[in-house]
Design goal:
2 copies of one chain form a homodimer.
Chain A: H1 2-8, H2 12-19, H3 27-40, H4 46-53, E1 58-64, H5 67-72, H6 74-89, E2 93-99, H7 102-113, E3 119-123, H8 130-138, E4 142-145, E5 155-159, H9 161-173, E6 180-185, H10 190-203, E7 212-215, H11 220-233, E8 239-242, H12 245-257, E9 267-269, H13 275-279, E10 286-287, H14 291-306, E11 314-317, E12 321-322
Chain A binds a DNA duplex (16 and 16 nucleotides) through residues 1-2, 10-14, 16-17, 19-20, 24-26, 29, 44-54, 115.
Chain lengths: 327, 327
Amino acid sequence: MIDVAEHAGVSRGTVSRYLNGGRYVSDDARTAIEAAIERVGFIPNRAARSLVMQRSQAIGLIVHEPHSLFVQDPNIASILLGANEAMSEADYQMACLIADSSRDVERLTKFLSGGLIDGVIIVSAREGDAITKAITSLDLPAAFVGHPRDIGDAAFVAIDNRGAARDITRRLAATGRSRIGMVAAALDRDSGADRLAGFVDALGTSFDPQLVESVPLYSHADGERGMRALLERCPDIDGVFASSDAVAAGAMEALRAAGRTVPGDVGVVGFDDSSWALRCDPPLSTVHQPAAELGREAALSVLRQLAGDFSAQAVRLECPVVWRDSA
Amino acid sequence: MIDVAEHAGVSRGTVSRYLNGGRYVSDDARTAIEAAIERVGFIPNRAARSLVMQRSQAIGLIVHEPHSLFVQDPNIASILLGANEAMSEADYQMACLIADSSRDVERLTKFLSGGLIDGVIIVSAREGDAITKAITSLDLPAAFVGHPRDIGDAAFVAIDNRGAARDITRRLAATGRSRIGMVAAALDRDSGADRLAGFVDALGTSFDPQLVESVPLYSHADGERGMRALLERCPDIDGVFASSDAVAAGAMEALRAAGRTVPGDVGVVGFDDSSWALRCDPPLSTVHQPAAELGREAALSVLRQLAGDFSAQAVRLECPVVWRDSA
DNA sequence: ATGAAAGCGCTAACAA
DNA sequence: TTGTTAGCGCTTTCAT
């Protein structure tokens, strides 16, 4: 920068002012500086700028997801894209950080506190999450996608998993099914637990715990496993609510393998409205999850906090039922 | 840090030495410093450290992919995970950066040159890519996943797309098909162009340009479109090589819609061995792409460069044919 | 083994 | 409008 100043015949201070919006810089100085920058091939050093400004203009997006799921979950990619777009418009650089091992988690917490990042979006946190703890204790501007119970009063953007689960289960019941089961995944996550709660709500007194099979992940494989178990326990089942589209796809496979038709013998509904839903045969009735908007809203929340606005910490988005042919 | 030094009764220099490996620090000093760090709640500032060290211990992974594909391509996620693992082992923080709009590209190039990142992995670059140009002119340690023609002598890790395409086409021909076509996607990318070249190689003199339909993206939708066009132009087609599993899945859908059976009427093969392949019905014969290893090797390459080793810039990985039931 | 001091490249407060 | 200067928080000679 000192070179630029010399070439332009001005002081470093003036160059700095030019670089930061150009107020209080005369036209003469401006053109001289522009020429000098060109000649010298000047590239500002962001580390230095970050140091003095205490800002990096970068925001992290943490994906804390087991291996297999990240690969398989189209929602995450949409969230990412939505967040990136919002950050981009505000001229922030989004950096997606993956927490895949405990070593990752440890390094990440250090990284986050290092001042190289101004704020953070957390996707798919689980209750009791080490990263969550680190972040809340760091008081870094943050926004969660989803709403784990233990984030205190941190900002979050979520959908009404429970209400939506209730809605779609009722809709399924309305097709005349009397033995409706559920493949309930990821009960260690708010979304998973809430979807189950909504299912129970909808069934009311006719709820039968026998008809719920719990599996660990929102995955195709677990859906298949869960459905098989359900089929074995309650062969008279005629409707299934799967915790996610991937789970539903797995369930449909198990159903097919067992010789049941969908929606003839068994009606199936999912959750997410991800690319899985249309890939199913028949296309899946499901709950539309506005993944890109979730990402976008989370980004906007962090941006707002960065601007000093800490109100409106809870955003809830609509997630309507999308009825197709699987039930 | 000055606080820590005071509490421990030593100088900042000693604290710094402790922080950086602890050589030339007495046991007394060490314990005093450790206690002081604890008491003060000291967190090192990475921006300051980056400034003086000219190193951030962070590496970028750039995904330059149109919106839709990123969401749909399971390979990218695997590459990411593989790279992250290798970086993690070396105590580097991986930051995934998305280039989704031209605005992104512009911001990214600035970001990369800012010194906040020590090196970079580039996934799915296209020929003439603005980011590629920026990186090569920046001489930032870099490694490409795939091998665009215009990266000069930059490091890359790739598979032999052409050879593998040749192999699987021959294998398909060996099932007795005589009118083999191809849905060729992404010809603007090295992988796409090479797969087509391999197809042409395999067919030799019996190659008929009429039987190739070119589509822009490695996507399910384009696969469906491409297959429909092929079917219309050459109704006697009895074998198809699709540029990717997603394309193959789309093609199978089009085939089904046209009343053709797979593999009875038409044999279909894909490329990638992604989660699409097993989701197809029947399961897809395809080329296994070692996505996680590609990511891992790219990471190792950048790491090597960071350590001053600039040899071995070209890594090639095996990608065997996996034969299933779709042909 | 340790302390003092000189920067890393930049911004911002102050004076002019 | 501009130049001067004092840091931002850390590492790293160079003495000691």
